[in-house]
Specification:
- The structure is a single chain.
- This protein has about 450 residues and is α+β, with helices and mostly antiparallel strands.
- It is about 40% helix and about 15% strand.
- The chain is built from ten helices and 18 strands.
- The strands form six sheets. A five-stranded antiparallel sheet has the order 1-2-3-7-4, with helices on one face.
- The longest helix is centred in the last third of the chain and has 67 residues.
- The radius of gyration is 33 Å and the shape is elongated.
- About 35% of the residues are buried.
- The site of flavin mononucleotide has 21 residues, from α8.
């Protein structure tokens, strides 16, 4: 079962909704980083249920505890284990649902796969599982922020009502996390109305990453947009992900969609900040389609685990609309992907540093070669003087041939190309003759 994510900043989440605790093990955190529990707690508080009548009333405090990997406020470089206890399990409610499949929920598919399921609150498929992602994402977000990279998400649409204006300061001021106050009021009414009818509503959440450096991602199977889409789609209840113009591309022309460039950079951002699977340095824009919460009180048809037809009305503490709670989760997933991609890119850059080091070494060798040639020229001058005094011929073809043979043999012994040495010494000997004739 795939409970882990990431290559360099690896996370593994664990826990069931009505088990003892939820948690995450994070591996790959550099030693010596400031570990700030408060930042993590703040993000968890944003995701926490029971914040308004527009979300699940489960009164979880979601206090995060650190089990390992941190000492005196610093990361040790060892796995960090964060645990969030489940304090308000209420499995009694689920006894009635024990043998029934909730329409739209994961139970049917989970039982088909494993032959066993934790029916209490959905087990691993519960929205509660995302608390662990948010805890890990908070760490990634903090490290990204040190690089100036910011991630923000908001509710862009609920039940067909769209945010018309975007005021980023407004997002955290209203319970639906919508950047348009007026639209949010209409959304609230709609959510409460459908809740009163025992129903739920869906919506769209927009995720934006700012100041992402160019070069993150990969060109083929691990394209940055593919990784982002996969991470966002892995959130329970998400049924669609768009990057940039998304499905709008179907009705655009190349001349509209292409992001033209001039010397100041890109003129538009239809691509959503990724080209060829690699970040361009523009903002990354993703939108996710969030389905209406499956657990609703409205009576619906279903079957039980023996395949008998039954009717179901789901009681318990459910979100009438998941969007506002998905906002911090979506930010966490974007942060996890970007931070991992950033660390992978740093590795490549480190290898480039190695290349720089090797190039410096080549420079040193060449410098030495030139110093040796200078010394050789001095010797040639002395030989020239010697020959002048004794009236000897400068050129000695037999000696030159014998010299050349010896050098080619040395080259062979050292694994150096004989042709290269022949050409090189042809030039050197010619230059040497010139020096002796002066
Ligand atoms: C933060 C969050 C809260 C959620 N709350 C509920 C809920 O209260 N009731 C419910 O039935 N589903 C809820 N879900 C959705 C289910 O987890 C999800 O629909 C279910 O696991 C089936 O997965 P799928 O919809 O991705 O196919 C929530 C999801 C998230 C991310």
């Amino acid at each position: 079962m795939s409970n882990s994510l990431g290559e360099r900043f690896k996370i593994l989440t664990f826990g069931e909704s009505h088990g003892n605790a939820m948690g995450v093990v994070i591996d790959g955190v550099r030693p010596g980083l400031d570990f700030d529990l408060e930042t993590i707690q703040k993000e968890l508080d944003r995701r926490r249920p029971g914040q308004s009548k527009l979300v699940s009333p489960r009164p979880e405090e979601d206090r995060v505890e650190v089990l390992s990997g941190v000492f005196q406020g610093k990361t040790l470089g060892t796995p960090i284990c964060l645990v969030i206890p489940n304090k308000h399990q209420d499995p009694k409610v689920y006894n009635a649902l024990k043998d029934l499949f909730r329409p739209g929920y994961a139970g049917y598919a989970v039982l088909k796969k494993y032959g066993i399921r934790d029916y209490r609150g959905g087990g691993r498929s519960s929205g509660r599982e995302t608390v662990a992602r948010v805890a890990a994402g908070a760490m990634a977000k903090r490290e990204l922020a040190k690089e100036g990279i910011q991630i923000v998400a908001y509710t862009a649409e609920i039940d067909g009502i769209k945010a018309q204006s975007i005021d980023f300061n407004e997002i955290e001021k209203n319970p639906l996390r919508c950047p348009d106050r007026d639209a949010e009021k209409q959304m609230e009414e709609r959510v409460l109305f459908h809740k009163s009818q025992g129903d739920s509503v869906g919506g769209i959440v927009q995720v934006i990453a700012r100041n992402v450096p160019p070069g993150l991602g990969d060109p083929v199977f691990k394209k940055l947009d593919a990784e982002i889409a996969g991470a966002l789609m892995s959130i329970g209840g998400v049924k669609a992900v768009e990057i940039g113009e998304g499905f709008q591309v179907a009705s655009m022309r190349g001349s509209d969609h292409n992001d033209q460039m001039d010397r100041h950079g890109f003129k538009t951002n239809h691509a959503g900040g990724v080209l060829g699977g690699i970040s361009t340095g523009q903002e990354i824009h993703a939108r996710i389609g969030v389905k209406p919460t499956p657990s609703i009180q409205k009576e619906q048809k279903t079957i039980d685990i023996l395949g008998r037809e039954r009717r179901i009305s789901v009681q318990g503490r459910h979100d009438p609309c998941i969007c506002p709670r998905i906002v911090p989760v979506a930010e966490a997933m974007m942060a996890l992907i970007l931070y991992d991609a950033l660390l992978c890119q740093r590795d490549i850059e480190k290898k480039t540093d190695d290349l720089e080091r090797l190039r410096a070494e080549i420079d040193t060798v060449d410098h030495r070669l030139i110093q040796l040639l200078a010394r050789r020229n001095e010797i040639s001058q002395e030989i020239g003087q010697y020959k002048r005094v004794r009236r000897l011929e400068v050129r000695d073809r037999a000696r030159e041939a014998e010299m050349m043979d010896r050098r080619i043999q040395w080259a062979k012994d050292c694994g150096v190309d004989g042709g290269l040495i022949r050409g090189l010494f042809h030039l050197i000997v010619k230059a040497s003759r010139g020096i002796q004739l002066k």
